[in-house]
From TrEMBL:
Residues 1-19 form the signal peptide. The keyword Hydrolase applies. The lineage of its organism: Bacteria, Pseudomonadati, Verrucomicrobiota, Verrucomicrobiia, Verrucomicrobiales. Residues 36-163 form the SGNH hydrolase-type esterase N-terminal domain. It comes from Roseimicrobium gellanilyticum. This is SGNH-like hydrolase/esterase family protein. One of its GO terms (molecular function) is hydrolase activity, acting on ester bonds. Residues 176-352 form the SGNH hydrolase-type esterase domain. It comes from the Bacteria. Pfam families: GxDLY, Lipase_GDSL_3.
Amino acid sequence: MPRCTAVVLCFLLLPLTLAAQSEPVRIPFPDPRLTVDGLGWWKETQPSLQRLPERLKPTIPPKVWRLAQIPAGVRVRLRTDSVHLTLEAKTGTYKVAPSPALGLIGIDLYVNGRYHGSTLPEKEDGLIKKTWDTGKRVEMRDITLYLPIGTPTLIQSITLDPGAKVELAPPYSHPKPIVYYGSSITQGAQTSNPGMAFPCVLGRWLDMDFINLGFSGNGKGEPALAHAVAEIDAACFVLDYWANPTPTEYSTTLPGFVDIIRAKHPTTPILVPSPYYNPSEAFGSRMGEYQVAKRKFAPKFVEQRRAAGDANIHFVDGFSLISPDQADALSDARHANTYGMFLYARGLEPHLRRVLTLPPSPAR
């Protein structure tokens, strides 16, 4: 190509190059630059942010299936030097409910592991368009978005500054996730923010991925759910579903649930928490009697399993999570509020660190 022609061509292309550099970096969802955590079957279910795969639907109770469409515990992560980040998403509309609106339908932003802000829909259409300042300087930051605990969610895009660098989020310190199976308490009901459900708190403290399979009112230990849980190659299983079944249902389902997990994961650690304190225990109601009965069963069951040779199943005393002296950690005399979620996480942390051979817990 003659030199003069090349020079002319460069001048012609320069405006296009400058225009491209001046355009914001819009990342549609999903995209290889965005890491999605907290979904055990993401490769199978994407782009849908559902917690159970479609092939399991025929075996899953309908109420559980509906709840599985809610991305509780799901995070979207990236690393960027952009000083602005705009999120476009669709969640749900807030109706009169016992749980805080931000927790149910909002999204939290964490920057470099610290809480940075939140957003929720302003209108009935459930649409979100929120721009955050992520920092003062152009430097690489770790971005984490915690998705709602109470409504199905669609992420449309994340937009960054023109010319912003984008990298994959850093890996966690452990290659496998912690899997929590449980009730509305596990799902995060009654907490103020999506990022404050106790599995989320523990994920930050331990620098580990986790999968939240808490199903509000429907953590009942069915074999179909045990088989689903057992599909996941986990670092640890936390069977936290004491709140929903009756004592008879709990004592009947828990042994079978553990058997199903052990068939695929013979040595993976399993934690079995017992019920934390419930004020109904103080005046002899049926709920209180149920709590006491399940609290008596859980340690006996774990002791029997250990005596039979399973050294990797462990009991967690519910009173070490929320005790009678900490009843103000409950929002409705039953569910953990945000303070209760902190206590629950703090109580579980040393057990998880021990079975995962992690350094001891710092003072919290």
